[in-house]
Amino acid sequence: MVFSSLPFLFRYLPIVLILYFIAPRKYRNAVLFFTSLVFYAWGEPIYVLLMLFSTLVDYTHGMLVHHFKQKGEITKAKIALSSAMIINISLLGFFKYSDFAISNINALTGSDIGLLKLVLPIGISFYTFQTMSYTIDIYRGEAEVQKNIISFGAYVVLFPQLIAGPIVQYKTIAKQLQERREDFDQFSYGVLRFMSGLGKKVLLANNIGILWDRISVTPNGELTVVTAWLGITAFAFQIYFDFSGYSDMAIGLGNMLGFQFLENFNYPYMSKSITEFWRRWHISLGTWFRDYVYIPLGGNRCGLGKQIRNIAIVWFLTGFWHGASWNFIMWGVYFGVILILEKFVLLKFLNKLPSFLSHIYAIVLVWIGWAIFAFDDFSKGINYIKAMFGVNTIGFINDNARYLLMNYAIILIVLILGSTDLPKRVANRLVGEHSEKKTTAVVQGLFIVGVFVISVAYLVDASYNPFLYFRF
Questions:
Q1: Cβ atoms within 10 Å, residue 20
Q2: Which residue among 61, 66, 282, 322 is the active-site one?
Q3: What's the alpha-carbon Rg for the chain, to the nearest Å?
Q4: What are phi and psi of 393, to 5 degrees?
Q5: How far apart (Å, rounded) are the C-alpha atoms in residues 347 and 300?
Q6: Rounded distance, CA 352 to CA 274, Å?
Q7: What is the SS3 assignment for 464?
Q8: How far is CA 266 from CA 158, 239, 329, 401, in A?
Q9: Sign of the alpha-carbon torsion through 121, 124, 125, 126
Q10: What is the pTM of this model?
Q11: Distance CA 248, CA 252 (A)
């Protein structure tokens, strides 16, 4: 079940909210735990057992780490922590990367080992990182152990961020699990944020995704330069509004339930360098790798060679986290190389450039990266990049490219503006000029109703409603 679906909007969510708010406060974590299991079981009932196993593993290992640390037995605490890490990584590796490993072994050795063809558990990359962060934070002393298994289970399976993030570190919501106080203002903000995300996903991402689907299957020999750039621009906007829209919905749902999740996107397409882009894109993932990989490796506190090594490791893992395919690994390596070059060479020059030039630099490199990311077949991605730069195309522009530009001109303008903070600044100015609470409430109410009605009308008729990050 996805947030942008009619069953979720008209069945699951209303029922959960009713059950949650009629339940006594001390039982609300239990309501979240069991209703979140229902949410996950809607699409994959078998893998609920896997999630419960992961929950039990990290709950018990967290208790063990806490117990040994209290007794001063640090070696045993390290063993318990290592055990939790091995189990979590093994589960993720088995379900997500088994066939990738077998395929590469077959290719290298000429063997014919049969593929397992396992269905990837939805959200396993997200909730595995979350549960690992809990045990690590207990060991570091950055979070208190959770002794109530239902409350811990509510954290692991909390449906707003269960299947697509943002990746919520336990230490950021530990207090909220026990002491949150829901109020009308927070709930109202949650509804507003959810509807903003729903509009991003349904009205923007889905519509521009149709253009990418059309162009991506066009043979390279039939592309023009303009068509290739138009296609990858469509993909760039689709994945941004798709994923950031889903994150907005998750944050909104969290607010409805009294939780405050950290932001996951901050207008990444406004960036003027790749370094800035990755501070603004999928912030929770970047924060996780910084806190649990980069800094423990030494971060910036070591020599030049080790800094480069640390960045290379993080970006290899970032690419590999996204999927069991060489294109994702090469995507991570691609950005890792650029980030190393920026850190030690390029940033001092970029900072001297006019803003529009540094912005173009960042966008071109990000768009090339999306071409690598978009095609599971790495060679197809390379050929598509060649087409973007006029290699093996049928020319710069043709009638089909002009037709697509004209047909999608309005939505492209909307997408460009929507990917900046301009709409937010305009809205804040208007609210500032008309700051009466009643006026603001009316405007927000009209926005919420309008987005909801139009989105539902679209969903009733639409058969195209993918979510790109489900496969990760």
A1: 18
A2: 322
A3: 23
A4: -110, 175
A5: 16
A6: 15
A7: coil
A8: 23, 14, 25, 32
A9: positive
A10: 0.92
A11: 6
Query: Residue 396, SS3?
Result: coil
For the chain, the farthest-separated pair of C-alpha atoms sits apart, in whole angstroms, at: 75
Q: Tell me the C-alpha distance between 124 and 131, whole Å.
A: 10
Give the chain's length: 472
The pairs formed by 8-11 with CB atoms below 8 angstroms and a separation of 24 or more are 9/456
Q: What DSSP designation does 9 have?
A: I
Catalytic: 61?
Answer: no
- Residues in contact with 96: Cβ distance below 8 Å, sequence separation at least 6, in sequence order: 120, 124, 125, 324
pLDDT tens for 35-91 read: 999 998 887 788 889 989 999 999 999 999 999 999 999 999 999 999 999 999 999
DSSP assignment of 112-145 equals: -PPP--PPPPTTHHHHHHHHHHHHHHHHHTSS--
- Contact by Cβ (8 Å): 411, 237: no
Q: How distant, in Å, are the alpha carbons of 140, 143, 145, 217, 302 from that of 173?
A: 17, 10, 13, 43, 32
- Write the CB contacts of 316 (distance below 8 Å, at least 6 apart in sequence): 329, 332, 333, 336
Taking Cα atoms as reference points, which of 308, 310, 298 lies closest to residue 344? Answer: 308
CA pseudo-torsion sign 246, 157, 55, 67:
positive
Name every residue whose Cβ is closer than 8 Å to that of residue 270 and which is 6 or more positions away in sequence.
280, 359, 419, 420, 421
Contact in structure between 226 and 401 (CB atoms under 8 Å): yes
| pLDDT for residue 435 | 58
Q: Choose among 187, 54, 76, 69: nearest CA to 131.
A: 54
- Under a CB-based contact definition with an 8 Å cutoff, are residues 237 and 206 in contact? no
Q: Contact 16/27 with Cβ under 8 angstroms? A: no
| In the predicted structure, residue 393 carries a pLDDT above the cut 90 | no
Q: Is 72 helix (H, G, I), strand (E, B) or coil?
A: coil
